[in-house]
Design goal:
The structure is a single chain. The protein has 193 residues and is an alpha+beta fold. The chain has helices at residues 3-12, 29-39, 59-76, 82-90, 113-133; strands at residues 51-57, 97-103, 137-141, 162-170. The protein binds flavin mononucleotide (FMN). Flavin mononucleotide is lined by residues 14-15, 139-143, 165, 176, 179. The site of flavin mononucleotide has 10 residues, from strand 3.
Length: 193
């Protein structure tokens, strides 16, 4: 273990968006398996392992694109926008892999829902860090059909489960730059007296 290396990884991790991906360049499935394995080593209350992922790649990206654009069309009603529909069709095809981020609600123990969600968010941070460590790009999006109830079953989720979004992964063509964070003094109160 090298804390300097970890500090660099944690602080230089950046979201990389689909328009920054190298078009048409795919990533070895085995790397994605390693990344997801790291995700499953996240902390979880009560050993609940509440994460559930689906991985879309190759033809699967087209399936996801068709599913999300058609569901949007069905659900949008008078708010339907052609530009949104078309973006939902195009966006997934820019990625090498897309991982749907699901929370399977723990039912066997008295674990608050927030804690199941928190555990999945920890898993997603492991994805973010792993993607960075492999020199790849990616980001968590809660766009698309994330909050459409009817979308859940497509991702093997039931009514008590939650779809928390999607993690897009691609090879980086244009790196992200220019992140800032507030000084920790703004966010931390020390109590040592
Ligand atoms: C829960 C969650 C949801 C997010 N959803 C979106 C999203 O829908 N669209 C988007 O462009 N970025 C989304 N992001 C990524 C943020 O834009 C990004 O993390 C933020 O700009 C900070 O940049 P950094 O990740 O490079 O530090 C999301 C991040 C989190 C943690």
């Amino acid at each position: 273990m090298n804390p300097d290396l970890f500090n660099e990884l944690a602080r230089n991790r950046r979201s990389v968006f689909p328009d920054q991906f190298e078009p048409g360049k795919s990533i070895d499935d085995n790397i994605i398996r390693e990344i997801i394995t790291n995700a499953t080593w996240a902390p979880d209350h009560g050993r609940s392992e509440p994460w559930h992922f689906s991985v879309f790649t190759g033809e699967g990206l087209k399936k996801l694109a068709a599913f999300q654009s058609e569901l949007y069309k069905q659900e949008a009603g008078e708010n339907f926008k052609e530009a949104t529909y078309s973006k939902l069709q195009r966006q997934p095809l820019k990625a090498s892999h897309i991982i749907s981020i699901g929370m399977k609600r723990t039912t066997t123990k008295n674990i608050p829902e927030t804690e199941d969600i928190a555990a999945v968010a920890c898993a997603v941070q492991n994805i973010y860090l792993s993607v960075t460590a492999y020199g790849l790009g990616g980001y968590w999006t809660t766009g698309g059909v994330t909050y459409i109830e009817k979308a859940k079953s497509f991702f093997d989720l039931g009514i008590h489960d939650k779809l928390l979004g999607f993690f897009y992964i691609g090879q980086v063509a244009i790196p992200s730059v220019g992140a800032t964070r507030s000084p920790i003094e703004d966010k931390v109160k020390w109590v040592d007296y």
